[in-house]
Each structure stands twice: as C-alpha cells, then as structure tokens.
User: Fold these one by one.
Assistant:
Number 1:
Amino acid sequence: MANKIKEIIKKLTLEEKVSLCSGSDYWHTKAIDRLGIPSVMVSDGPSGLRKQDVEAENPGVNQSIKAVCFPTAVSLAASFDTEIVQTVGETIGRECQAENVAAVLGPGVNIKRSPLCGRNFEYYSEDPYLAGKMGAAFIRGVQSAGVGTSLKHFCANNQEYRRNSYDSRVDERTLREIYLRAFEIAVRESKPWTVMCAYNLVNGVQMSENKRLLTDILRNEWGFDGLAMSDWGAVRDRVKGIAAGLDLEMPGNCGAYDDLVIEAVRDGELSEKALDICVERVLEFVYRSIENHNAQAAWDKEEDHRIARNIANECIVLLKNDEGVLPIKNDEYVLFIGGFAKNVRFQGGGSSHVNCVNVDSVLYAMQWNTKLRYEEGYSSFDDSVDQRKIKSAIESAKDADKVVIFAGLPDSYESEGYDRKHIDLPQVQNDLIEEIVKVNPHVIVVLQNGSCVTMPWADRVQGIMETYLCGEGIGVATARALYGKVNPSGRLPETFPLRLEDTPSYIDFSGDCQVIDYREGIFTGYRYYTKKKIPVLFPFGHGLSYSKFSYGIMKTDTDSMKDDETVEVTVDVINESDIPGKEVVQLYVEADIPNTGVRRTVRELKAFTKIFLDAHEKKNVSFILDKSAFAYYDVEISDWYVEPGDYKLEICRNAEEVISYRTISVTPKRPKKKIYNENSVYKDLKEDKHAWKIVKPYFDKYIREYLNDQNTDEQAAEAFGADMEIFLADCTIRNAVNMSQGKITRQEMEEILDKLNKQ
Ligand code: BGC
C-alpha cells in the first residue's frame, strides 16, 4: 500500500494535494475521481454512534441515525474495568463497519482539571493513568473491528469556556505527568489511527499549529504514525498547521485556505515535502479504512442494547450503605421520588449526543414490583418548584419501608460548549431530600450526573448510589443494583469534594480569562487533596459492595531494583461474605524519600484490576511495575527519571485509605548527570563527593585568605569557620567569586565549572 500511495502522490497536482488536506464536508474526506481516490466518513462519538445522515449537516441541526447509547466516559471509567471498555469499543466498531464509518471521533482522554468543566462526562478521570488505560482499551476495541479512532482533544483542553481561544499555560513537568500522560499511554499502547488536536492554545501556541506537540512529542517521541486531524473548526493558520504536522482540516471549509497553502508552497514558505507528508497520511488513513471495510457487516440494535445494559451494571458506584439499607428486598414497600426515575438522564449534550432507539427508565425496569409507588416530587429537566408535588411526595414517604430519591443534574447544567457555574444539585432537590429524611429514616439517594456534585444531606441519608450518565441501559442497571440482582462494583474515577472552593484549580479555573494558568501544577484531583490533607466528601477510587472483601499481606518479589527491572506485587483478596461480587484492587506508589529536592505527590495510582470473587472465595492478584511507576518527569534532563530511594507500594481501598504496603528501594541504572553552573550552591556541591573534591580547594583558599586579611586569631577563625558553613550553604559559585575580593577569579570559576561538568 505504501508504494501505491507514493505513486498516487507523484500523480497529484499541487492543487489536488492541498485539497486532500481538508474534508469535503462535515464528515467526509475528499475524493479525487480522476485518480480513483475514494472518500471516507468519520463520525462521533465515544458513547455511541452519532452518524449524521445528511452529508453537510452540523451537529444539532439534524438528528443523527438511530443508535445505541452506551455509558459515557465517566461511567466507563467508574467500572475500573478495561475489558468492558474494550467491549464497548468492539461494539461501536461493529456498528461503524455496518454503517460504513471509517473512524469514531473519540475517545476523549482529557483530564478533569476542575469539576466545573462542562464536558467532564465525556472524559474519564482526574487521574492520567486511569484515563490513559481506559482510552487505550476503547481504542483497542474499536480498532479490532477494523475501524479507526480519533484520540482527542490533544491536549490541555480542560474547560469549555472560551474553548476556541484560551491559552493553557502549563509547566513542562505538569504537562508531561498530567495532561500528556493519558495521551501517551493510549498512543503507545493502542496506536490510534488518528489523533484530534484541541481548539485551544498551549503555552502560547495554537494546538492546530503546535509542532512541538503534534510532531516532536506525539510522533517523534511516542511513535504515533497515524493521521492528525483538527477538531471541528480549530484551524487558524493552515500553512503553519501543515508545517507543524496537522494533516487534515475538519470540516472542509470549502477549501477556504487552499489558495494560501498553494501560494506558500510556490513562494517556498512551505516545503512541498511537508505537504506531501500530510497528503500521504490522509491517503494512508483512507486506504486503511477501505482495506478494512467489511461490506457484509451488520448490527443488531437489540443485541447492542443488551450490551449497553450489561455494561451499565459494571459502572454503578455504591457510595454509602449504612446499616445495609441496600439492597432493597422484594417484599419491602418502597417509594421512588424524583423525575429522574421516569425521565432518566443518561447521556450528555453536544457532539457525543446519541439519537437513542430504546431507553430504559428506572420505572419501566421496576414494572414487576407491585410494592413500589412513585412520586415525581420535581422534574428532571429544571429547578422548578411545584409545591403540590412536593407535599404529596413528603406525605407518601411517611409510611414507606424505604424511600429512594432520584436526583441529578438537568441537561442544561452540564454540556459540551459551556462550563458549570457551581457543583450543586438544583435547590429543589436538596430541599426535598432534607424534608424526606425528616419523615423517613431509610432514605437512599440515586444520582444521575456527569460530574461530581455536593451533597449537603450526605450524613442524613442511609444510602447513596452514583449512576453517573450510564447510557440507555441505566434504568435496568439501576433497578438491578438497588434490588441486589447485580452487586455494585464501580469506583469513583474522580474526587467528590465537600465544596467547590476546595478544588485544586478553584482560583485559576476559567473566570473571564483568556490565559489560564495551571498553577496547581501536578497537584490535580486526589494528588491535591491528599497532599494538603483537605477532607473530601468521597475520595477518588471509593466504592462499596454488597460483599465484604479482605486482603492478605501483600508481597513483592524483590526489596530493591534498578529502574530497568520490574517488581511483581502479589496480594490475596478474600470475599468474606455469602454474596458473590467484584472487587477493584488498586495499587498506588508513594515516594518515601526524605529531603528530596523534587516536589512529590503523596501517592499515585500505578495499577488496578477488577476481579470476580464467589462467596468466600480467595484469589491471588498480581501486578508488575516498571520504571513508569516510580519516575517523575525531570525538566533538567528532559526525560523521565527515577530518583534513587525508597518507594512504598500500597494496596489501597481508595486514594486515601492504605490497606497494606511494602517498601522497596529503586535506583536508576544511569544516575542523573548533574549539571553545574554558576548558580549551583555550596550545599549541593558539598553533597556530591566528586564535585566537592573539585571545588573544596577554591573555597578553602577563599576562606583562608579572607581570614588572613582579617588578622583573625585561631579561636576566632575556628568559630568563623562554623558560622561560615551556615552562611555559605546557599551561596552560589558566582556569589563566592563576587564576594571574594579577587581571591577567586572569574577565569577560575570557568575552570571549576569545566571540571565539574566533565566528571
Ligand atoms: C468537538 C469534538 C467533535 C467534533 C465533531 C467538536 O465540536 O469538540 O469532540 O468530535 O465537534 O462533532
């Protein structure tokens, strides 16, 4: 194929080449009939197929074809189960084959920097490792069906406000460890066919022109070999974009920039070679899709609906279950309150919105139950108050065995295109919950929302279940979890804070700013709360089960390793109960290095797995950790580096609760070469044996001669020497030269630095 494409490129005119680098409309690449080059179609989206039937239609103007809505990314991440995410990918991939779609525009692996981001439901997590693993699994699934994916939105795209023009100012270490990491994991592990650049700027450069990110890092460092396309309308300067490695502009924009690109090539401003590379990648994508297309493929909406339900079972998170209020028994008189039980909220708004065939409401799923009553209480569409409905709900709650209140965020509270203003539920819901707990002690709140919310009533209800936006199977899955037909096994992929003001980016998020400083740095999500010991409502990784799990003593196969080796961690997990269930085993790493000069988080998630345990069953879980579990990104050497020292490997229930740990020491195979300059300080030089050997004679000379000048007696000289140590500790080489009154010359300083850096 490579040769065929090279031959085609030779036959293309300059105009044809340029035209191939933008779409023919909203969803298609261009065809060139003269050379038999076909056009292929791409479609949103990550939680179900959103194929626009009418070619040149913008999202929202016309309905997309009828399709199945799977749990949104936040729900999938809550499963902590890469296999089920892969299954969703495979299913969507099959649907794409049947619908002749060449690539799905997803997954989105952007980090939930703030709970306010309107698109958080479309993103997996606040943790880059979890987000990367989920993204990789989704890509694996879709691409196994011979359909491409578009990993998006690359990168540092973490808010909707001014989304086309804001500039994310992120320091290099934070970029690498947090905002690039999920992309890196997904690219290295699953090789997406395409990557979509984000709308925003990163550190002053528009992403659609960002050569450093699109080419130097994405391709040259991580080995991405697919097509880079723009987010819809993200292009600013197409000439710069092509030079930076942005192959395809979407949508087509009727070739509005083609003349400028042609001119730039003719003037020599843009090399034709750079253009040819983009054309080659567009053609590779087109022919790869054609080669993988299966004209016989078909899909079964009923079957995929069943898959959506079963996947939803895995994503529900049981947050609170006092006195075993859940599961509900079939013979208990139960009252359901809240419009969300009937008009479920199961997906978010914007480009990922699926036109569903078949949505399970919770009430529909509960039709079998004659002991169930329903009161609307409030609508799931807004914050309006209807006193009659409220009174009636309170009245009915009095004599129910248990009350389940369905709460959540109406559609207008979160969506692509705008950010949330706060993280509270509509007031009418909070107020009604407070009223109901006064009349019934057995209250359970079930939540439908795309991102965390505050729960002022959390202490006064017995049960809380987070179902997020769980796709069209949400109703059946919720009913199953409430009545114990399915044992909840999800875990929070994000922290639920007590207050918006506690969140890491609270001060720097959005506002009316064009430039967004990521001042919290690497301390996003639980990395922030654990470091600052800020109490939270529910920590990252939290989730309960109807089973009771316990852990054995964890073991490692070594106590020390070099960073090019691996360590195996094993631990027994035991189901102590009569109820079969699934446990998520979470492994975090904590650097235990005193006096480190490196800013460190408390702990970071480095491995996880979900296992099924029958009643009273015991299973052994094993993880292999390599360098990436210990390394931080060192800006001095522009590389990942493992600081030599002790590391605690911790099996945790969530980001805050350690169950058991072992410490191992890790050393880098090649210690970091220290680079000294005139600002290197005395105490650092002294700590480095080799360096000290070199600089000591000069400092000695300086001190000796200084004392001679002062005619100091021996005793005073000794006392002075001790004081001098303290005084000199933070002294740079440059300071010493400047203060030495000519006793150490600048030339000598150059010699010192030469010697130091040669060691
Ligand atoms: C969104 C993308 C989406 C594209 C096409 C953009 O507005 O940011 O996520 O894939 O539209 O619908």
Number 2:
Amino acid sequence: METAELIWQNGEFVPWQEAKVHVLSHGLHYGTGVFEGIRCYETERGPAVFRHREHLERLERSAELYYMELPYSAAELRKATHELIRRNGLRSCYIRPLAFRGYGEMGLFAQSAPIEVIVAAWPWGAYLGEDGKKHGIRTKVSSWRTISGDSLIPHAKASGQYLNSILAKTESANSGYDEAILLDQHGCVSEGSGENVFLVRDGVLCTPPHTAAILDGITRDSVVQIARDLGYRVEERDIARSELYLADEMFLTGTAAELVPVREVDDHPLGEPGEITGVIQARFEDALHGRAEEYLEWLDFVEVPAGADEPSKVNS
Ligand code: PPE
C-alpha cells in the first residue's frame, strides 16, 4: 500500500511506522472495532472531504450499536482529520478512522479494555481498477450469503463483520472475477463485498431498501439523490437474483470503489457501461470534485496554509 508520513493515534500524530498496538488488543482477537472509509478530493478550493459529517455520524452509530463509547467526539475527529491531511501534505486521499477495543482485558465482556481510536490517510487509487471504472467489471454471485440481522448488524460498519465480505471477495477473486455480489437469507440481492448495488430496468433505477441486510451506503445515498435530481425514478425495493441477468445496466457504489459499472454477472454479459450509468457517474464525479454547485454542501473543505494550496504542476 501507499503510505503517508503521520497517523493520528489516540490524540497524537505519530510517524507512520510507529503507529502500533499490543498483540493482546481485544479488537485483534475478536474483531471488536468500528471503522469508516472516507475520501478526500482535490478541488479548485483545495482538498475537500466528501460527506465527512455523515461518515463520522455513521462511525458514532456503529460504535453505539456495539456498546462502544467513543472517547472522541465527531467534532474532534473531524479536526484531527483536517490536521492529518494538512500535516501529511495530501491533496486527495482515502481516510480510515478506526475505533477498537485495545489492550487490558480478554474475554467477551471486556468492558475495561480501553477504546483506542486512530485516523489514517493515504493515497488509494481506483479500488476496482481504473479500467473497471471506465469499461465495467465482471462479477459473480457468491456462494456465501450476506450476514443477516439475526446474528450481526448489517447497518454497522464493524471490523469483525468483514470476514463475511472477505470470504465472498476471496471466492470471486479465486474464480477470476473482479467482485462478488452477495444475496441475503431470502435469496434477494443485498450488496457487493464492499459496495451497494444498483440496476437499471426500463429506465428506472432499483436498489435494495434500507431495511435490507445492507450497509446504508453514503455513496448510495448520494447517487440516489443525484439520480432523482436528474429526473430518473429510483425504486428502493427487493431485487431478485435473475434481475441481475436481465438488467439493462448495473453498477456498484462505495467510497473506495466510487461508481463502477458492471459488465457481467455470472457469465451473463450486460455490455459496455450504459447511458444512464454514464450520466450519473459523470454527475457524481462532478460532485466529488466540487464542480457541481448544488452538491457543494457535501464537501468539507480542508484549510491549507497559504502557498501550499497550489497543486504541484508537473509537466505543465
Ligand atoms: N457495503 C459494504 C459492505 C461496504 O463495505 C461499503 C463500503 C459499502 C457498502 C458502501 O458504503 P459507502 O462507502 O458509505 O458508500 N466499503 C468501504 C470499505 C472498503 C475496504 O476495502 O475497506 C469503503 O468503500 O470505504
């Protein structure tokens, strides 16, 4: 992975290589952590964190759902993140806040194990490849069902839950596909291993509802709003597996992945990225980079010192 200079760890900025934990940290053994994936983009007005508030609110909700009390407020984490981006001299980056039970007590009711919090930021390119963003990716329905609300909390973004995503992703990668699509306990489409799913059928966009076993994606929410603003109908409803094969267009959304068209599901070709996908993807990219006036409120601009706010001009 690419690195940066500093990581924010429990209130302090420490050199990247020195941001360490004890091997008996609770989170390492039991997956007791909650995290976020956030992106910061270069804009004309300097670096801007996309939907920062919503991501930090989701982090707080995830912590609450797992009975973890965060020792820092969203305002403190926001400030720390801005400072981290500044100190690392980053223009665009992926941001990973993580809160986990640290060292101090073992066992499953380890209330005295302290909650540790880190925020890291580093450059992370296209999650599913630049080519995938342009020409679409190949997906396969996983033999692993998505975690159900009966046993875990799909709406929380918790570390341990990702073993489910990792099984699905590993299976799809080992079979030569770019990404896995998971079904829920009833056989309905839920999500990708790290993305929400959208279909286009007869000009209407469809995506599984909030009540499904999905992470309530912030990119999903942004894309629903953009699509509706563009005049498209968006239906949040159950999606049958066969609808994936019959879709006119299909795409995935997530912070890391951004908006990625799907060109194949279970060896059924869907073709090159469709028209509606292209229109929404372009508008979404405009929103991310501060080129769409009506979505400027989604951007949390990072103040950078005077003189440092000019992107370095290479080959110009
Ligand atoms: N579902 C899952 C399971 C998921 O992990 C993500 C984000 C989403 C949906 C989309 O949510 P949002 O980012 O709010 O639009 N996946 C994160 C983790 C990726 C990773 O490999 O780590 C991400 O995109 O940052």
